[in-house]
C-alpha cells in the first residue's frame, strides 16, 4: 500500500467523521474536518508562524523565502491567514462575498496586501511562488498576531493552528516572558503540536547588563516553570546577520529538515488534529446543551435538603437510597414489631412448663372424683363425697396456680412490660394494666376440659396437657391484646415521622431526577465521543 493510499484513506475517515458531526447538528467542526481531509489527500505540510505583531514574522518569512511576498510594516498586517507554498506563480484571495480573486504576485502584491489585512471579507490568502525552500506540498502560514483584540484575528489564528503540522512561535527579544507567550505555547503543546520558539531581534541585547548565555538560560527556565518543553529554541537577528549569537542559519536548516520529513509530520499531525476536532465537536454539543444544562443546574440550586450538597450526584443518590430504605423500614416497623413480639410471646408460652408429677397426681384424683357414681363411705356418704370432691378440685387448682405463677405469669408480665420501651414508647397506664393482668383458673375451667373416656394414665396426661394449653391460650389472648396496643402506638409514630420523611423523600427524588437528566446529557455527549473515536481508530488501523 502506498503512502498516497494511506493518506487517501485517512482523508476518507475525516470525511466520515464530518458527516457524523453534521448529523448531530454541528455545522462548524465538520468544515474544519473537510479542510483537514483536503490537506490530508495532498499530504500537505503546513508550518505556521505565530507570535506578536512586532515579533517580525512577516520579515522572517520573506527572508526565508528570498522574496518580499508579505508586508513587513510594524503594524497589524495579517488579519487573515496568508499561506505561501512552492509552485507556479499565483496569488488567490478567498473572500466571503466575491468568491476567489486572483493576482499576479510580482506586479499586484500591493493589492494583495490590502486583502491580507481585511479581516471582514477575506477568509484566506494563498500565494504560490517558485524558487524558494518550499515545494508544492509544503507551506508557510503567516497568522495574525496573538495579541490582537480583534475577534476575526483570533478566529483566523485558530484556523491556522487547526491545519498546522508544526508551529514556529516568534517572540520579540524584549517580550519573551509575557504571560500570553506561555499561555499560547502551552495550548499548542497540550494539543500535541511540535513547537519551535524563535527569539527574534537579539541585536537588542546589551551584553554588559547580562551575558547572553545567562539570558538564554533565563528563557529556558521561564518556559520550564510553566511545564513547557519546546522542540527547539532559536535566537535570531535579521537586522544584524553577523551577530555572534544569530542562529538564523540553524533555524533555516531546521525548516528544511522538517520539510524533508513532510509525510511523517503530516501523518502524525492530521491524526492528532482529528482527535482534537472530536473534542471540539463534543464541546459544540455541550454548548448546544448548555441552556438545558443550566436549567437543570438552576433547579439543583432551588432544591434544598438538610445536610446535603445537592450538586453532588453521588451524595444525592446515596441519600435517596438511605431515605427510601428508612421509609421502607418505617412503613414495615409496626409489622416487624408485631412479628417480633408475637414470636417472643410464643417462645415464652411454648417453654413454660405448667404440669409436673404433682400436677398429674392431683389431676388423676380430681378426674376420679368427677366420674359418675363416685362416693365415699356409707354413713353420711353424700356430704363426705362432696367434701372430698371439693378438696380434690382445690388441690388441682392450687397446684396449677402455683405452677402458672412461677413458670408463666411472672415471665409473661416481665416480657410484655419491657416491649414499649424497645420502641421508644412510655405508657404508665399500659405498664400498670400488664401487671394487673389476672388469668383466673376456675373450677369451671377445670371441668370444661374433661372428656368422655376410660380413665387411664394416658387420659390423665392428655387432660393435663389440655388444661395447660387452655391456660396458655388465655395468656396468649391477653398478650396479643397488649401487643396490638403497642403496634397501634408504633403506627402512630410512623405516621408522624412519615410526613416529615416523605417531604425529604420528595425533594431527594426530584434531585435524583435532575441529576438523571444531567447524566443523560453527559452520556449522550460521551457516547458521541466514543463513536467518533471508534471511527477514527478504525480509519487509522486501515491506513
UniProtKB/TrEMBL annotation:
Q: Where does this protein have coiled-coil stretches?
A: 313-351
Q: Which UniProt keywords apply?
A: Coiled coil, GTP-binding, Hydrolase, Membrane, Nucleotide-binding
Keyword Lyase assigned to the entry: answer is no
As for subcellular location, the record says: Membrane
Please give the Pfam families that the UniProt record associates with this protein.
Dynamin_N
Its domain of life reads Bacteria
Q: Report the InterPro entries cross-referenced here.
A: Dynamin_N, Mitofusin_fam, P-loop_NTPase
What sequence ranges are listed for the domain Dynamin N-terminal?
47-200
Among PANTHER family, the record links this protein to:
SARCALUMENIN (PTHR10465:SF0), TRANSMEMBRANE GTPASE FZO1 (PTHR10465)
Please report the name of this protein according to its UniProt entry: Dynamin family protein
